[in-house]
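Milestone M4 deliverable, item 7.
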Amino acid sequence: MRTSTRRNVLSKWLKTKAILKDPAVRGLVPETRRMNEKSLREMLDRYKMVYIKPETGTYGNGVMRVEQGNGFYSYQADERKRVFTSFRSMYRSIVRDKRKRPYLVQKGIHLLKYKGRRFDIRVMVQRDSKRAWEMTAMIGRVAHPKKIVTNYHSGGKPTDVRKLLRPFASAEKLSRIEKALSNAGYDAAKALSRTYPGLNMIGADIGLDTRLRPWIIELNTNPDPYIFRHLADKSISRKVLRYARALKRIPPAHNKPVP
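Output delivered:
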């Protein structure tokens, strides 16, 4: 098996193919295909709602939510939603919007909502001093009310996971959900690093559907470690940043002068 020592993998397609090799992770990954007219039509016929996204890119830029209804098709990019009477007319518009960039199409997950806004969970997994993977933190990301993505840089709001999940689960069930999220992130990191052993920090974006089933939406190999500063428990962000510095992913902390 070919492996790579790179520390960052930009292609969402390559990352998806890598983790699909692992039986423990495969069932957590929504069906994902390279997008063309045929694959988009087939996926829409099957799932009625899909997300399409650039094969490379960050911050949720270029992501679109595409839907098929009774006699209409629609897609939303950023805050703009467009409606069409035929698939062909919609597809032509999507092609113009994607500007020749290669895209993927992914089964749409109907995410849980907090006060009417979709949210997902960022699970941070980092290598420790012995290069073993460790789940170090998780945080919820609540989408801007007018947008389809949860990314912080696209207006998403970082929020404590327990606050988001409390309306859906008892304390006991909430702990089980957190464990499932942690395991999903950890297993995904292990699976991806079998193909890319040079990786040392992974942010797994995991969505929960209305049955509280976790889905691995995307893996980020250059995740923002500073987002965890939004958590009330500052020991969590301190740990994430300490690991990130040890892995040389962020600059060392400035030494404070001794008074």
